[in-house]
Predict the 3D structure of the following.
Amino acid sequence: MDQQSSHRQQTDSRAKNEFQKSPQPSKKTDSLKSHFRSASRKVHLLTGSVLLLIIGLLLSSMGTTLVRGITAALSIHQSSGVAIAPHNSLSPAIQVDFSSRQNHAHPIGNTIFGVNGFSKIKANTQLLNYLGTAHMKLERISVGMPGMFPTPSSINPQQQDWSVFDRSMTVIQAQGLKPILTLEFSPPWLQPQTNSCPGVDPSHVYPTSIKNGTNTGPGLWGALAAQVVAHMDSKFPTVHPYYEIWNEPDGVTFLCVPASNPNPDQTRLVEYKAIYAAAALHMNQQAQQDHTSIQIGGPALAVPRIHASTWLTALVNDSAIAPNIDFISYHNYFRIRHADTWSNTLGLLQDPTAGVAALFENVSSIVQKGKQPNAQSTPILIDEYNTTTSLTDCCRNNKTFAPLWNALFITDLLNSVNDKSSPYGPAHAFPSGLAYFSAIPESPTASQFCLFGTWNSAMNCAQNGSIQPYPQYYTYQLLSDSRFLDITNSAYITNGVSVNSAGLIVSSFYTSTKDDVLIVNTSGTTYSQLTISLQNPGLVQPKSTVFTVDQSNPQIRTSSVNLSGGTGGYTTTVNVPAYAIVALSLT
């Protein structure tokens, strides 16, 4: 959370001129009286001259100061398109307490960052190296059931073709990555004879196979899901996926419900529960047979701001489903179908009831109250996220705002565990995974969504020419690379940070070797010489380094700053450019 305050500078000049007349002696001769009168006049003249000189100097100094102030202000206005605000408060602008590195309440996992679309880049060594540098180890992969099991006979392992899937898993295993395997959609032989949703992919439908008037489709689909588990357990036993049931079942286009249905949302929920229950039963039975344990979850909600309260509450409190929930997943986009502005994007990200942190806090609150095992520690994955669902917007790939919005997204989630102002209460933990959408464009309808592409004037994710990380990638590298903040190295979130400069969103954490402060300047104000207080760092004689990401430094600039020792810690000053990410790291 950030706290905003106005910096006012007031000038109050006062001149005090007090004259006191000494009392005259009553018993003196005339000559002495004359002498004292003469001396008194000289003293008065001398005193008056001195006072006039002092007043003149004060007026001159004030005039010079005023002129310099006006000149400096004009100079700032003329030299920059942003405001420059030197920090002149007596208290630090940012106060962090690392509590001697003893606060273990909110750990951060080592596979928290990742991407969608891994299958499309699995053979590109250059892009895989970029993922490795940024420690993006969480890879979401679609397991398309229609392609994997195209005919009824493909339920027989001898009739299955795993070649494409195995190429992805071989890379996953070799690089020590953590996959999210999304089991999605219905094969042709588990689709109803009549397509009730024209214009929608016919596989995006409730599994259907009518036998003696009963739909056995969910059970058959669950048996196919168990085949995926069996294949993983035998071919890739060291890979431990998250098995995610379906993709966006609450979305209109991902689980077909006829337009004539009076309660489409409720129908989708009922159908999804039947799919999940059948799949989890078969998958867990297979895992037991293979003498292993697996993680099953979902529902990968498309519109959690609308559906989280109904869908998640129903799932985690269903006696047949809750015992088989090992994680919860949802997607985070803002549903705006037009180009936007940074100001509006900022407002959406930080909306107190529907922004990034608020949504996560709401989901966390629901999950904590559920009947699933270990409800207080159930992992929550945001396994698709980006700015808006619009093909183009102001900020997704923008050279200034792309790293900024991504850093703000993550910083707000870091701060959610300390958010005492939330209507839902603080989150119980940081998300177990954040998967960016997407590594490269997955389809023509998602052509502007990428983490890697050609840098051009449009920043439109073109895949011709030299493919490089896009600006938002450097947020991950700043956070995760061991040369920078190293957040995936046994990190813990500290208690809340105190901030008294407008537009700054700040979080802090410590890793096995570093104490880190992450500053996101969402405003057009440049803060010069911003004072940071670092209490109880727990490191002996640390060195301090500043990292900066902004339009002038898109690939992370490194600089050193000095620490000043004080009671219980240190202070330092840093410069924070407008629309920038600045991180301070103690080692």
About this structure: The chain is about 30% helix and 20% strand. The longest strand covers residues 525-535. The radius of gyration is 32 Å.
